[in-house]
Amino acid sequence: MSADAPADLEIGSFSDDAPWVLTDVAALPWRRRVRQVRDVVRREVPELTRPRRIPPVRRGLRVVRHLGQAIVLWQLREHRKGGSVSRAGVSRRLREAAEALGPTYIKLGQIISSGEGIFPAELVTEFRKCRDQVPPEDFATVRTVLETELRAPLDQVFASIDTVPLAAASIAQVHAATLIDGTEVVVKVQRPSVSHLVHDDLRVMAWLAPLLIGRIPITALANPPALVELFAETISEELDFRLEADNMLDVARSFADLGQRGYVIPRPHPELVTPRVLVMERLRGFAFDDVSSIQQAGINTHDIVRTGMIGFMEGCMIEGIFHGDLHGGNLFVQPDGRTALLDFGITGRLDDARRLAFLRLMMSGTTGDSRMQLGALRDLGALPRDTDLDAVIADLGLDGPAVDPTTLAADELVAELQRVVKLLLGYGARMPKELMLFVKNLMFLDGAIATLAPDIDLFEEITHIAMHFATTHGERLAAELGMQGDEVYQVDMDGMKDAMGIDRSIETLTYRDIQDRRDLIRKRLRRG
User: Fold this and answer.
1) Residue 330: how many other CB atoms lie within 10 Å
2) What is the DSSP string of 132-156?
3) Which domain holds residue 109?
4) What is the C-alpha separation between 322 and 255, in angstroms, rounded?
């Protein structure tokens, strides 16, 4: 690091051109009560999601009216047609109801929309339409929030502020601005009354969720009460921007500790952070999916994908903290090839026990150890503590030869999927928050490979990433996992191929190959 580099690069993976320098971050005025605020938010979740005999009446009636109408219309029109038509119909009607019900339900839809592989495909596809359909607040309302939170007239803080937002989401909207001293910034402003509305909506959801069990097909996999609890854990921390600013500093620190400079985190302002306003450094770059511009700038898109995978996994398994909502709107590529990471409202934080569980989950994936993998999932909370892992292995057929799903007929594939889902639900399987965020991010990175590097050899990448962990963190991994040093370097490619249902004789596998397999499986599922 050069002598004239900003001093705070020692404590965070920030930009080289600092608009301000964060030195004693523990003394930042807005950060002093963050730990207490985080504890209060965490304690509120069980109370917000406790099923009640009577929900908030006015809000509850509105929710029941919109959701009830959606389900009744689906039952009258699409339900009788069955199959994918029925699932698509109920998904569309639920999306329309969510849009009518406002920010909380739109936010739920946005989370579902990035959960490919977690939630039913029809639901994911339909809720993607929620991403860009949130109308902004008028600027008079924005001004009121800003002046109330910052306790000063707008012109005493900003030389200028754009009245048209850069983006408008369900919880907040973002405006470009310039401070009095000429510094360009981004200002995130929470929508008025959204906190009260979210709390009321969570109480309504907790009352309604048990009534949906078994009523509509898409909830069989989602488990409505567990989904409400998961959503409450996720959205509650987004309602206080001091927590988001704190997340920014902690993730930036984790990357600095790792020596990972492929990501750049915007600096939160030392003073202009409140529960409903967050002023931060403005960063610029190429849209993440603007492959043409990225390549014209001489940036290797393969390196972007590799940095993304390694940085994300190191955050989970080595540092115990990671950005929990990776999608194209939350990151862009800077001209120097580094990836700017934005919007830290949803962040995964792991205690040491769960961090080690994620570590075992990764290691078992590279060694083909099914028992270690299930044990790691149990320790993450995806299975009850008293689950008989050997029984699960036997029931799922993990102790027998692997079956390539592309070789199954349509009815066989559907029957097998239904069997596995029923079995897991019978064991009490659920999706804890951190695991959901982890899988959701992997799904995004999977799509990033399709966009930025569709022809890379996935077997080669898996080996490279495993070797990076072994050479960079090998001694620590061996100590934490109770392994011998040379065991950390082992990658059981045959075991991984078995787990993927791929013939061991296949030597290379690109994303295009994976997509062809998925397309074939989807077609057979539709026929089934």
Assistant:
1) 18
2) T--PPPPHHHHHHHHHHHHTS-GGG
3) 45-133+194-238
4) 10
What tokens were used for 393? 């292995």
Whole-structure pTM value: 0.87
Residue 160 lies in a domain: no
Separation of alpha carbons 122 and 120, rounded Å: 6
The pLDDT tens digits of the residues spanning 235-244 come to: 998 999 999 9
Number of domains in the chain: 2
CA 275, chain centre distance (Å): 22
Q: How confident is the model at residue 489 (pLDDT cuts 50, 70, 90)?
A: low
297 domain-assigned: no
CA dist., res. 86 & res. 79, Å (int): 5
Q: Is residue 523 part of a domain?
A: yes
Is 275 domain-assigned? no
Task: Say how far apart CA 106 and CA 94 lie, in whole Å.
Answer: 11
Give CA separation, 3 vs 9, 66, 262, 264, in Å: 11, 61, 20, 19
Q: How long is the chain? A: 528
- C-alpha–C-alpha distance, residues 429 and 94, integer Å: 25
Q: How many CA atoms lie within 13 A of 437 on its CB side?
A: 27
Q: What is the pLDDT of residues 446-481, one digit of tens each?
A: 888 888 888 888 888 888 888 888 888 888 888 888
